[in-house]
Amino acid sequence: MSPNALYVDFYGFRERPFTLVPDPEFLYWSQQHRRAFAILEFGIMSSAPITLITGEVGAGKTTLVQALLSRIGDDVRIGLISNAQGGRGELLQWILHALDVQYDPTTSYVQTFQILQDFLLEEYAAGRRVVLIIDEAQNLSREGLEELRMLTNVNSNKDVLIQLMLVGQPELREIVQAPDMRQLTQRIAASFHLKSMDAETVPKYIRHRLQMVGGTGEEFTDEACQKIFEATGGVPRLVNQLCEFALLYAWGGDMPVIDATTVEEVLADGVFLGGTAPRDDEPVDEEPVIQFKKNGGRDG
């Protein structure tokens, strides 16, 4: 049975509104997401050596990256790495692979680094900037982060030849702020911490997703949306999961509208496992964590 044969036709949707696949077309531009995206664009336009974006699991970081990729012009060469791991030399191979640069994996580290440097110089001469996006960067070792930091020293006169965007979970911010990461921190020209949605944003987010697939946006009552916020802490991925289960339950009961009782039934049955979602210490309507530097410090 096709997934669309479940509740999609019953509610008149074109497709499922709450899938977990990062899709920039479904992105709800909350104030938080607009600011985070502005930081990403600022990082590229200002030739920032390193841009840092952090947020909880499911906060929408990867979706923002996908949205950014869809807007990049031909004058920017993008490399995207997800969940890179490994020691010295292996990360360099990840980078070459992401940038579609041919290399011999049996060559020495010095020769491999020279291949990357030659590629960066060629792109610079052709008038193209190179941007490397590392998603789930909290999985990198300190050695890996230091190796990335050293890449920002590759330059032509005053221009950085490769820009880095580090995207990861909150612990990434803690790692880069550690005393032994001081040189890396000095190269971060802009950073933003993406928080969860607040109680006012969650209903707007749900209505947006419903309308994107042809729904009215009124399939969930206000009380249901409040229950969903309380159970998910406003984390978009968890909101999607709980809304999906609620639609399934309502469809099974031939109910055109999802109310608070339906959400409570989903939670009571234990099919939704995200009820212990972490909450941010500060409300999202306060001033977000945004940091700018005029330019990154240069290390030897």
TrEMBL record:
Source organism, top-level taxon: Bacteria
Ranges where the AAA+ ATPase domain occurs: 47-182
Pfam families tied to this protein: AAA_22
Start and end residues of each stretch annotated as Disordered: 274-300
Protein name in the entry: ExeA family protein
